[in-house]
Design a protein that fits this description.
The complex is a heterodimer. Chain A is an alpha+beta fold. Chain A contains 7 helices and 4 strands; from the N terminus they run αβββαβααααα. Chain B is of the alpha+beta class. In chain B, strands 2-1-4 form a 3-stranded mixed beta sheet, with helices on both faces. Classes of the chains: A alpha+beta, B alpha+beta. Chains A and B meet through helix 2 and strand 4 of A and strand 3 and helix 3 of B.
């Protein structure tokens, strides 16, 4: 299920909940359906009843505009009988994988790959592996956005292995990326790698080919 | 307030955290009048980035200790205790205030604490 589908599903759940509790519901109301103080905003759902009124925003956390959310909260705090609920909707997020940030842009990926190559040439193998893997992980997660959206923010190992298992990565490339990931993980988490340092000049062309295909 | 210190933390860290809570509570209490006869509900919500700093029970105690003398006179007044912890911005539904919105926007863990006079048995809510 895509994030947009998750959002829509959540809106329907919340609509049903408020209806069960006797509220009148407007989903994505037009400007003229809103009281004046809400017209600068475009709330996802407005629930009204004699007991109180609720504005509900359903958002992927990466799509939240913090200033807008703060302004909306401030406005509703000034309106008696109104409150704001915010529902953060996400694909499953592995521990230590950012939930809010967007994937790195192409420019960053290209820069990281170039830097990895330079660092390797200078003998800085650990730093080269860190940057090469960072670029590779962006590309893998970007592939996951279309191939398996629920995996976009899962652990790097899970993303890599799943994309391989569904045929998006050739075996030889998968084995190189696995080695790169394991070496990088050891370094990143403060351990001495058991395996030899990966050859960055050998793996970067494969990463760039995946980048073209993603 | 930022990343909480565990009840298992060392003396300096806990003292720093308790001072921070006490200062924040004094600033926030406004015209809240402290009476030793009030029965109170203490609500604590801890939102973390990536991983929590400690188990929930180890987060609650230092907080409650720090509020003694600021929000209430004696721990015995806290007859309802509601505590939750969630990963920030990940599949959570929040009754959002301007203070909470600012905390969600900031790039760190935070703890949101409220003290109210109790009106119902929270555990049966």
């Amino acid at each position: 299920m895509t994030t947009a589908q998750l959002e829509q599903q959540k809106i329907e759940e919340i609509r049903a909940e408020f209806e069960r509790n006797g509220f009148a519901i407007l989903v994505r109301p037009s400007t003229r359906e809103l009281p004046e103080f809400l017209r600068p905003f475009a709330p996802d759902l407005v629930a009204t009843s004699p007991r109180g009124n609720v504005v509900v925003e359903v958002k992927a956390s990466s799509d939240v505009d913090p200033d807008q959310m703060t302004r909306l909260a401030q406005v509703l705090e000034r309106e008696p009988g109104w409150r704001l609920e915010v529902v953060f909707v996400n694909q499953p997020v592995a521990a230590e994988v950012p939930s809010d940030e967007r994937l790195a842009p192409e420019e960053q990926v290209n820069r990281l790959l170039s830097s990895a190559e330079s660092l390797f040439a200078s003998g800085e193998v650990e730093a080269a592996a860190m940057l090469a893997w960072s670029a590779a992980e962006t590309i893998l997660r970007r592939s996951a956005q279309s191939a398996a959206p629920e995996l976009e923010r899962q652990s790097s190992a899970r993303v890599l292995k799943h994309l391989y298992s569904i045929g998006l990565i050739e075996t030889s490339v998968y084995e190189k990326l696995l080695l790169l990931m394991q070496f990088r993980n050891a370094v990143a988490h403060g351990f001495e790698p058991k395996m030899a340092a990966p050859s960055i000049p050998d793996v970067v062309p494969d990463i760039r080919r995946l980048q073209q295909a993603a | 307030m930022g990343t909480p210190v565990s009840a298992q933390g060392d003396g300096d860290a806990k003292r720093f955290w308790k001072k921070r809570i006490g200062d924040a509570a004094r600033e926030a209490r406004g015209d809240w009048s402290r009476s030793a006869s009030d029965e109170l509900v203490l609500r604590i919500a801890y939102f973390y980035i990536d991983a929590p700093a400690a188990d929930l029970d180890n987060i609650v105690k230092p907080l409650q200790d720090a509020l003694k003398g600021v929000a209430f006179e004696d721990d015995i007044q806290v007859v309802d205790l509601v505590a939750s912890m969630r990963r920030k911005g990940v599949n959570v539904r929040v009754r959002m205030t301007a203070i909470l919105a600012a905390a969600f926007a900031a790039g760190s863990d935070f703890v949101h604490v409220t003290v109210d006079r109790t009106s119902t048995i929270e555990v049966f809510r």
